[in-house]
Specification:
alpha+beta; BirA Bifunctional Protein, domain 2; seven-stranded mixed β-sheet; 11 helices; 9 strands
C-alpha cells in the first residue's frame, strides 16, 4: 500500500505539470479524486491492511489527497489567469483606428437649443443667469413666495416630498428667493433649470425644465408696461419678428397683479388653425408684478422697491418651435429624433 501511494504521487506530479487546459485538469481530478479514482480506491482498500498499520497508511493517503487537491486548485488558478489573458489579447481593440464614418459630430438636444436661445435673448436685455439646488427646502420653494400651507401646489399629488420640509423643487422661483435674500436691488436675473411635479402625459412630464425671470428695482423704474415690453421682445426674438403678444388677467400667489401671456400663432399668423385651436393665440407663460409680501419676506422693502417676474416652460416652447407633438419624445433619446437637430 505504501509503495502504491508513492507511485500515485510520482505519476500525479508528472500529469499535473503537463495539464495545459482546464479540461485536462478536470480529467486529472476525476482520475485521482473521482468516485472511482485512484486515491478513492486506496481509501476503499484501507480495510485490507493490518489494524496497527491503518492509522499510518490512512494518514499518508489523506496527505496525498490533500496534496493533490492543493496542486489542482493552484494549477486551476494559473490556467484560468492564462486563459483570461489570452482572451483579452484576442479581443483587444485598437482605439486609435480610424472610424469607418468620419461624420460623427453630435448635436445639441432640442431642449438645450431652446434653453440657450432663451439665455441669449435675455442676456441681450441685461439679465444675469443664476442657478440653485434641485433638492430644495419648503422655506424657499413655498413659504417665501407667499404660498400658504393649504395651497393646492403643496398637495402631495403635485409635489415630490422627501420629508415634510425637504422636496424636489416645483419651480425655479426658489432661486429667485435665494437671490433676493442674498443680494440688494437692482436685481435682473433669469433662473433656468430642472423642476419636478407629479404629472405625466403627452404634454406633461414629472421632470421638466423651466426658466424664470426676475427684475427688482426702485418703484418708479419697474411697471407692468416694462414687463410687457420685455416679453414682447422675447416673443419677437424667439417666435419671429412679426409675433404679437397679449396679456390676460390671472392669479399667482407670488405676483399681484398676475397675467398669462399669449403669443400670436406663428403657424397661421393669427387666422386660426389646429395648433392654436382656431383662436389665433397660443398660451406661453405666466408673469406679473412681484407681490409686496414676497419682497418683504425676502428682506426687500416693498415700499421702496417693486419688480416683475415670469416663468417659461422650456419643453412647451421647444415643442412649439420644433413641432414636437409629445413631450415624452424629448426624453426617449431616440437617435433618429436627435439627428434632426444636427
Amino acid at each position: 500500500m505504501t509503495e502504491r501511494i508513492k507511485q500515485i504521487s510520482e505519476a500525479f506530479g508528472a500529469k499535473i505539470s503537463g495539464a495545459e487546459t482546464l479540461g485536462d485538469l478536470n480529467n486529472i481530478k476525476i482520475k485521482y479524486l473521482g468516485k472511482n479514482g485512484e486515491v478513492t480506491e486506496l481509501l476503499k482498500n484501507l480495510k485490507n491492511c493490518l489494524a496497527e498499520e491503518r492509522p499510518i497508511i490512512g494518514k499518508k493517503i489523506n496527505e496525498l489527497r490533500q496534496r493533490i487537491e492543493n496542486s489542482i486548485n493552484e494549477r486551476e488558478k494559473n490556467l484560468a489567469e492564462k486563459a483570461k489573458l489570452k482572451k483579452l489579447e484576442e479581443e483587444e481593440i485598437d482605439v486609435t483606428l480610424s472610424l469607418a464614418h468620419k461624420d460623427t459630430t453630435g448635436a445639441l438636444h432640442p431642449l438645450t437649443i431652446t434653453k440657450n436661445m432663451f439665455i441669449n435673448i435675455f442676456a441681450g436685455m441685461g439679465f444675469e443667469v443664476k442657478e440653485g439646488p434641485e433638492i430644495e427646502l419648503d422655506y424657499y420653494n413655498f413659504q417665501l413666495l407667499n404660498i400658504p400651507a393649504d395651497h393646492p401646489s403643496r398637495d402631495m399629488q403635485d409635489t415630490f416630498y422627501i420629508t415634510d420640509k425637504i422636496l424636489l423643487r416645483t419651480q425655479t422661483s426658489a432661486v429667485q428667493a435665494r437671490v433676493m435674500l442674498e443680494e440688494k436691488p437692482p436685481i435682473r436675473i433669469i433662473c433656468p433649470g430642472k423642476v419636478f411635479r407629479a404629472d405625466d402625459d403627452a404634454t406633461h412630464s414629472p421632470m421638466f425644465h423651466q426658466m424664470e425671470g426676475l427684475v427688482i428695482d426702485e418703484k418708479d423704474k419697474v411697471t407692468l408696461g416694462d414687463l410687457k415690453g420685455c416679453l414682447d421682445e422675447f416673443a419677437r426674438k424667439f417666435f419671429g419678428e412679426d409675433s404679437r403678444i397679449r396679456l390676460r388677467p390671472s392669479y399667482f400667489p407670488f405676483t399681484e397683479p398676475s397675467v398669462e401671456m399669449d403669443v400670436s400663432c406663428f403657424m397661421c399668423k393669427g387666422k386660426g388653425c389646429r395648433l392654436c385651436k382656431n383662436t389665433g393665440w397660443i398660451e406661453i407663460l405666466g408673469a406679473g408684478i412681484v407681490n409686496p409680501i414676497v419682497l418683504d419676506n425676502c428682506g426687500i422693502d416693498s415700499k421702496k422697491y417693486s419688480g416683475y417676474a415670469f416663468g417659461i416652460g422650456i419643453e412647451r416652447c421647444a415643442m412649439l418651435k420644433f413641432g414636437i407633438p409629445d413631450i415624452r419624445i424629448l426624453f426617449e433619446n431616440d437617435i433618429r429624433f436627435l439627428r434632426q437637430y444636427k
